[in-house]
Amino acid sequence: MNDPTNDWKRVLDSHRLPEPVYVTKPTMPDLGRYTQELESLWKTGWLTNQGCMHQDLERRLEQHLGVENLSLFCNGTIALLVALQSLRINGGEVITTPFTFAATPHVLHWNGVTPVFADIDPHTFNLDPARIEQRIGSNTRAILAVHVYGTPCDVDALQTIADRHGLAVVYDAAHAFGVRYKGQSILRYGNASVLSFHATKLYTTIEGGAVVASSQQHKERVDFLKNFGIADEETVIGPGINGKLNEFQAAFGLLQLETVDQEIAQRAALARLYRERLETLPGLKLLPHNKEVTPNHSYFPILIDEAQFGISRDALYQALRDCNIVTRKYFHPLCSHYPCYAALPSARPENLPVAERVAQRILCLPIYGSLPPETVGAVCDVIGAIHRAAVAS
Amino acid sequence: MNDPTNDWKRVLDSHRLPEPVYVTKPTMPDLGRYTQELESLWKTGWLTNQGCMHQDLERRLEQHLGVENLSLFCNGTIALLVALQSLRINGGEVITTPFTFAATPHVLHWNGVTPVFADIDPHTFNLDPARIEQRIGSNTRAILAVHVYGTPCDVDALQTIADRHGLAVVYDAAHAFGVRYKGQSILRYGNASVLSFHATKLYTTIEGGAVVASSQQHKERVDFLKNFGIADEETVIGPGINGKLNEFQAAFGLLQLETVDQEIAQRAALARLYRERLETLPGLKLLPHNKEVTPNHSYFPILIDEAQFGISRDALYQALRDCNIVTRKYFHPLCSHYPCYAALPSARPENLPVAERVAQRILCLPIYGSLPPETVGAVCDVIGAIHRAAVAS
């Protein structure tokens, strides 16, 4: 009668949601309005190559984000690839974080750079400035930092280190659309910042991304490089690539821009709800507040301490899946575990203790504008019930 | 009264077209039907990452083209980049043609390969097999050949050379959609072929491209690499990239596929018209016929011999522009002239005499399905009048 396996099964059975809930879902613009936008493309036949909507979207994004010198790209990976190339970071070593999506170290590979992994801060999950200097050598060219989950890096500390050693700083700001730090856009720091507008992001152009360059001349160089290095009909200034965002994506992005503030506000409300329900639960740690940051609530990560919570992150992930709640172990495995990077000296687990621990414990919960607050409540109910069943058994 | 400048001006004035005619223009599907296709995306919110339409388009393209193992890409450049990576062509030297679009040598750069330029055949404008062997050294990894204007390379000769020296052969088939050679798709030759579906191509997915791999295992590797090297949730097999084609592009491609045979037939009729009118004009050379080839008429290039025609290619280009006819010097300059490649030993003009001569004389005339035959007639009238005025002056 008191078999714990039965208790556990009963908990999951009684909490299963009727439909699967995914970790994210894009908010779609009105299809009728989107079709209207397409009509102009049907008239002109100008479908890509810096079309009118592309130009319009660059201007509007600059205004919305409070930045200058923004260049659109077909996706965030090619944007990051070109951002590095535009700064001639094309050899030697670059210090970066292992706690990020695969695109971050991969663009180093494509630019002929060896990644050097440094450990992360246990609170923000971003590169720990205290761990960077010990990794700087004579071949170091730059720091490639990531604003993980939209939480700003310690940009002042990173800039101080970079200045002392003559390094460039590039920010992978894939998560950081609309984030402000000390009253200004987080995208204004470093030598370049790169956004992602993938369908899983809070602002999306289906696939897409952007480079925020540091000057008008820098943007011009980025624009050449994203169009094969073509400066004019007779001149190719360097080995560029095709990084062009097409007009169908730009049209989508223009409509998304009208609703992105509302998307962030809805996510903020859901994040508050999660926080109220989960922060008192033993064994769960949430992202810290920082008064100097205007967040975008792009993700809702929780850190699970198995000893206190009662079960491991992997067990919680599976239990939630059994209840029709699809979460993500984002980022697990660490990039330093990928076969293509695992043999690097900097990839050794003993050099990255914080990142190793976080990657084993992190879980991102569903959050997106159209997610009903009741569903967030239901997710919290399940997590609470799982915890109680786990510690009771 | 008999001032030749006035005669020349009179010729241009009397032949100017009322509206500009461009070298190409995409044939658009019905907007209503396109919107219908989009409705399913609005229902599911699945906008990219190997969606249903992406899967459907891969299957249908394979059927249409008569190939297997086709993988869609966001553009042809990233497709070519990944095709090389999938074959581990990631260092040393690769023999290629200087008479091509910038993307061809640039993808070698991105894979850490030094391009070695070899001269072209004076009739097909493709890599001349007789020029390849003298360029092969101990660091040579592969031959990257281009089916320029859709004209098949001498695939048998290239394969013989490759086999003798243990080299891979990759075909840039950006121009070669639907081309058949000896009764089968030209895409079936070599270790991989790469298509472009850019808006300027006869078949388009707005931006887009594809790799045709040589086996199912090869396609699987290509598919991993275009999605960051992700093999499954826990495994990243290598430093891949984001090469994903989104569902909006796939939907466009599905509709384009219904009309592409008609597009080619219309182009064939226009090409016949051009040929009838231009092949008797002194100083113009057209592409040769080859009975073993089913062509796609993706371009209509002419080669201008200044001594016989009366004026140079550059002068004809400008005169046509003055008459509202926009042609393209495709490909001028040669890739071996780009500052980033000009210092290579193989880039010396004296090593590439045929390519140098062709690049100075080539001009691509307007051709696309919806171009009225009368406009082709008018273009031919202008060219004839310019010739007569030029030889008379």
Please explain how this structure is put together.
- The structure is a homodimer of 393-residue chains.
- Chain A has helices spanning 4-15, 31-44, 52-65, 76-86, 103-110, 129-132, 155-165, 216-226, 247-278, 306-309, 313-322, 353-361, 373-392, and strands spanning 70-73, 93-96, 114-117, 140-146, 168-172, 180-181, 184-185, 192-196, 209-213, 230-232, 235-236, 284-286, 293-294, 300-304, 362-365.
- With 393 residues, chain A is an alpha/beta fold.
- Chain A has two domains: 4-26 and 259-392, Alpha-Beta Complex (Aspartate Aminotransferase, domain 1); 31-255, Type I PLP-dependent aspartate aminotransferase-like (Major domain) (Aspartate Aminotransferase, domain 2), CATH 3.40.640.
- In chain A, the strands form four sheets. A seven-stranded mixed sheet of chain A has the order 1-9-8-5-4-2-3, sandwiched between helices.
- In chain A, helix 1 (4-15) packs antiparallel against helix 13 (373-392) and helix 2 runs antiparallel to helix 9 (247-278).
- The longest helix of chain A is centred in the last third of the chain and has 32 residues, at 247-278.
- The mean pLDDT of chain A is 96.
- Chains A and B meet through helix 2, helix 4, helix 5 and helix 9 of A and helix 2, helix 4, helix 5 and helix 9 of B.
